[in-house]
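Comment on this:
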Amino acid sequence: MTPLAPPVLSESARVLCVICIFLIPWAGAGISLVNTGLGRSRSAAHAMLTALCVMALAAIVTSVCGFAWQGYLGRPAHTVMISGKPWNWVAGQPLFLRRLDLDGSPASLAACFAMLSAGLAAVIPLGAAADRWRLGAACASATLLAGCTYPLFAHWVWAGGWLAQLGVNYGLGRGFMDAGGSGSIQALGGLTALAIAWILGARRGKYAPDGSPAAIPGHHAIFVLFGCLVAWAGWLGLNSAGAILFAASAPGNTILIVVNTTLSASAAALAVAIFTRLRFGKPDASLTANGWVGGLAASSAGCASVVPAAAIMIGMVAGAVVVLAVEALEFWLKVDDPGGAVSVHAVAGLWGVLALGLFDRVPGAASGQWLAQLVGVATLIGFVLPLTFGLNWLLNRIYPLRVAVDGEREGMDLYELGAGAYPEFATHSDEFMPR
């Protein structure tokens, strides 16, 4: 079966895919817990409510128009001829999932997958914008992601778009490959987080006049660590369902996917724990948690096509790049990212995309696979990031994204929701606020 041919799923493959899709919301729940725990206590309820709202909006927007732009292999799409070769740019399906039989067909399973994975991508930026992103603005931004940037890139990768056609048109391996979404979900969500963090600016009190950053610790380490375990369950479903739908993976290959996903996350977390133990004298819980999720993000692209030893290597490198990226963003680039979303999802996700080109074990894969993966990374950084920044910049001009100064000082819970997450405890210390 070629990567551009619509897959023919057996009954067992469909049942397994449905079960795996049902696990995907746990990935969003886990990331939400991590984001909430790494934020401040006076914004905890706001963080969780915002996560719920953006996932709900992403599902609705995907059903209204997102899947119409994304499509699926073998379904109608708009192409242009370049040098005598057809290049597939965007799907051409009806809105509101019309003419799509929701009967367990591969296309209907892909639509369900899209509704949930778009929500996961929309939750990722919340970590970078913690403690200062208005609920309404986050929902508007999630609408742009689910209705524009996510389905467009997902079509290019998973629905026979031009990135997937790189193998057919230019002989670059099997074209751009991303079974579980290291690029299409993780890197896209992480780059959106970077754009939002740039537009919002740092939290008040994060940087001193001389530019040195202040440590603003997360309020609930248990949320963070428990969120890692919850996300793990979701990722097993995410990677398995994605591999079945978009990489023609056989049901029996799910065991390899589970092993690779687990090994990558485990290696990343242990690498960070050891590194922080050697550097600081004690392991850092929040960085180790970020390493775990970074290993999950990096595992997704090649989960079905690398050997377990390679998955361990991918995870170890993911853990290292997460720590280095956290420091680079905070100290050098002055990007205030409380949840580490840019490092964990964008940087580790991009590494996972490149790692598939390095460690791919599929027989017959041409040497051009690495170049195909590189083209995908360049597209994410050179097109998706500017597009995302531009859309959210325009949104900010119409509907300001950042909460008022009083709201940040009072806390997002009281200011936007009228009640705190922990009413019986003091949660409003001003130790990090400028005098």
Observations:
- The chain is about 65% helix and 5% strand.
- The mean pLDDT is 94.
- The CA atoms of residues 190 and 345 lie 5 Å apart.
